[in-house]
Amino acid sequence: MKYLICLGLTLGFANAAIAQDRSGGYWGAFLGSFSYEEEDGDLGIIDDKAAAYRIMGGYRFNDNFAVEGGWGKTDDVEGGFTETIPPFGTFTVNVVGEFEILTVRAVGFLPFEKVSLLGGVGYFDADIDASVDVRGPISLGGPLDASGSDDGATLVGGFEFNFERIDIRGELEWFDVEDGSEAWDVSVGVLYHF
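-> structure tokens emitted (194 positions)
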């Protein structure tokens, strides 16, 4: 069994050795789906997905390591809840919000001939702009604007198809948001090496 493991590792390293040199700067654009779930938070219950886009730049030091920075934005993430408050009656709260996210991360690659596996860790800083609409027996005068921010760690994993100066990347990124919440981004992008 240990001979099979040694053979597999040798073939993997040999395949990685014939991979193209990917060092240098790059930039790209991504489209994807952002998922956000918050239960019993400050703004009620939110469990929604929204389209997201991101632009990113980075520098790959060698075939196995890069540093990247990105800016992204989501479409509207929506949620809400209904609450009865005696003696006032039943109120419905609807929340609509957008996220703007800055990231910086270190990424490791396992390159093969035309494809690379990737994984990384980083930091994110997100701004949230929301509109809260409360409907019920007592009018509050229309939607209220709210904003907030969050920051923390981020983890990413995925793969790249490598061409001469272009990479096509698919990735899943997890954001360490506040307790009781979950945030994920699944995206596909094109990177150009210059």
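Residues 2-17 form the longest helix (16 residues).
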